[in-house]
């Protein structure tokens, strides 16, 4: 109970005046009788002399007959207390009231309209009974009242004049009557701060806020809609209370903001315009709302940077990344999806935050990158095209994800170089190696498995191979299964026909070829299965496929080349 009210009641008791009309009529009243029949639990402010107030009332006589009512007029009463604009009884009876407090006031004639009354409305010497509810209190010396309800732990930037803000709000009058809410429209309120687009109180009240901060802002009428009010919901001279949640903000002059969360110690190369980048990302609004994620699709986002395939902010934000880097890219809306937003998850004028993890990148012009880890000192013979090689390898993505390894099998990998049996980049990386040499190969996708990838290999992936050459055998020219080290025998068919029966079956052919190899007169195409190579040679010479070679069927490869026929001998 306010001190003034206590003194007033004590005064009434000393004068023998009851505190409520229900106690009976002891005679003429000397002062206003006040019954505070509803007092709010929270009373932040009491009416004082000189305050501006808004209130509703019903005015009756002792017999209950109504002589006036603000409710009937559909408008609250606004005025200043203690400056003679109200009858004396009301001036006294309203002092000390809280917002939403309700009082019964009994005003004796000498504090009301006296012996004159109001013609046709209030008779002379009438005692007046008022039922009053206080709705608003303010003073011309009031300032904006800002209460921070919650604030994020991390706040790198706060709202300044000329910033564009997006916020949710509930707007009420001082008595709690709602007049507007962005939540009911399912859309934030979006506007510039400090440019006159808002009432002055909101322009001031939003300054210094962090994205994600909640505030209560109490705005006196002279910083709101003043004497005119606004529409049917905001009466004249109304204080406004806004509960504000700032979703995001930016400035039209903002560029992309980068935060380097994790940068690998070794960064030999950084992405530039024209590079093709594979990365994972989580995309959120400034309030933390997730709008998209590559992780949810279990697939990286793959694109060229600096070429307009992605929003300008990401084109800029991915410049200079390293493989393995984790980076936060904050993109203002004019470098993202602008005023229109995108779909139903990215609102118009939204600031976007991308947390990206760079898996790899390459340029379409990249060659195979070769790093020699170990090379024997006595390295006199190196691999060439068509050589048969045996090698061990470990294959992984650039982020360290293991894909394949020859060590998982019983023996090394075998291949004839230049026969399109391995990806082009690996074939190139195995050339000019010595037996025992170890290399690391970085193979761009256009020399690997391309945009489509392969089983276990993502599309457009850069591959890392650790290779060790175990052994090599000199190869033969393309199209040959066997070559002579010198000139072939002049009477080749007669020498090959070991039993001189005029025909050469498969076993006779095989024995002859093996003898030439053993005596160093020629060599087979290197293979892990020489018998199959010889069988293929025989089949190619046995033109009618009758199981034997005749003299008419046997031809040297050099002769066939002249005839544009590609066989083996």
Automatic annotation (TrEMBL):
PPIases accelerate the folding of proteins during protein synthesis. GO terms for cellular component: endoplasmic reticulum. Residues 1-24 form the signal peptide. This is peptidylprolyl isomerase. It is found in: Endoplasmic reticulum. It catalyses: [protein]-peptidylproline (omega=180) = [protein]-peptidylproline (omega=0). Residues 491-519, 529-564 form the EF-hand domain. Pfam families: EF-hand_5, FKBP_C. Its main location: endoplasmic reticulum. The gene is Fkbp10. Residues 543-569 have a biased composition (Basic and acidic residues). Transmembrane segments: none annotated.
């Amino acid at each position: 109970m306010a001190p003034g009210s206590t003194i007033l009641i004590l005064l009434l008791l000393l004068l023998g005046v009851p505190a409520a009309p229900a106690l009976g009529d002891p005679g003429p009243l000397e002062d206003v009788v006040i019954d505070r029949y509803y007092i709010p639990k929270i009373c932040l402010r009491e009416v004082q002399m000189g305050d501006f107030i808004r209130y509703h009332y019903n005015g009756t006589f002792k017999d209950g007959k109504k002589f006036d009512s603000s409710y009937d007029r559909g408008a609250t009463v606004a005025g200043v207390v203690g400056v003679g604009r109200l009858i004396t009884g009301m001036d006294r009876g309203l002092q000390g009231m809280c917002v939403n407090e309700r009082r019964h006031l009994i005003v004796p004639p000498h504090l009301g309209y006296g012996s004159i009354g109001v013609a046709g409305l209030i008779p002379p010497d009438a005692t007046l009974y008022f039922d009053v509810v206080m709705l608003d209190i303010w003073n011309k010396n009031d300032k904006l009242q800002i209460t921070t309800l919650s604030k994020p732990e991390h706040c790198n930037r706060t709202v300044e004049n000329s910033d564009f803000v997006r916020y949710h709000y509930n707007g009420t009058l001082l008595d709690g009557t709602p007049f507007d809410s962005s939540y009911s429209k399912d859309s934030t309120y979006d506007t510039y701060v400090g440019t006159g687009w808002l009432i002055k109180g909101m322009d001031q009240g939003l300054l210094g806020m962090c994205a994600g901060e909640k505030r209560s802002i109490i705005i006196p009428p002279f910083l709101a809609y003043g004497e005119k009010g606004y529409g049917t919901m905001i009466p004249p001279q109304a204080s406004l209370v806004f509960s504000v949640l700032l979703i995001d903000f930016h400035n039209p002059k903002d560029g992309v903001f980068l935060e380097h969360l994790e940068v690998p110690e070794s960064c030999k190369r950084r992405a530039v315009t024209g590079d093709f980048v594979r990365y994972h990302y989580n995309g959120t609004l400034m309030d933390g709302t997730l709008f998209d994620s590559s992780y949810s699709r279990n697939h990286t986002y793959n694109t060229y940077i600096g070429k307009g395939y992605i929003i300008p902010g990401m084109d800029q934000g991915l410049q200079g990344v390293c493989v393995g880097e984790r980076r936060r890219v904050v993109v203002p809306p004019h470098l993202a999806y602008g005023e229109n937003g995108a779909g139903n998850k990215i609102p118009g004028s939204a600031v976007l935050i991308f947390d990206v993890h760079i898996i790899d990148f390459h340029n379409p012009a990249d060659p195979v990158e070769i790093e020699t880890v170990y090379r024997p000192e006595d390295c006199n013979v190196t691999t060439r095209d068509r050589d048969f090689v045996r090698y061990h390898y470990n294959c992984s993505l650039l982020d360290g994800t293991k894909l394949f390894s020859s060590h998982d099998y019983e023996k090394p990998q075998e291949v004839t170089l230049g026969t399109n049996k391995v990806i082009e980049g690996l074939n190139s990386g195995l050339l000019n190696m010595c037996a025992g040499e170890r290399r690391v190969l970085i193979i761009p996708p256009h020399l690997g498995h391309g945009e489509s990838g392969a089983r276990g290999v993502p599309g457009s992936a850069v591959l890392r191979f650790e290779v060790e050459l175990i052994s090599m055998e000199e190869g033969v020219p393309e199209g040959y299964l066997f070559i002579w080290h010198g000139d072939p025998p002049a009477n080749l068919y007669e020498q090959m026909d070991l039993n001189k029966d005029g025909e050469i079956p498969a076993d006779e052919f095989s024995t002859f070829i093996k003898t030439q190899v053993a005596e160093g007169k020629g060599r087979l195409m290197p293979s892990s299965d020489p018998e199959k190579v010889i069988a293929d040679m025989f089949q190619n010479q046995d033109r009618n496929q009758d199981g034997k070679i005749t003299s008419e069927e046997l031809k040297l490869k050099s002769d066939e080349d002249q005839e544009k026929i590609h066989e083996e001998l």
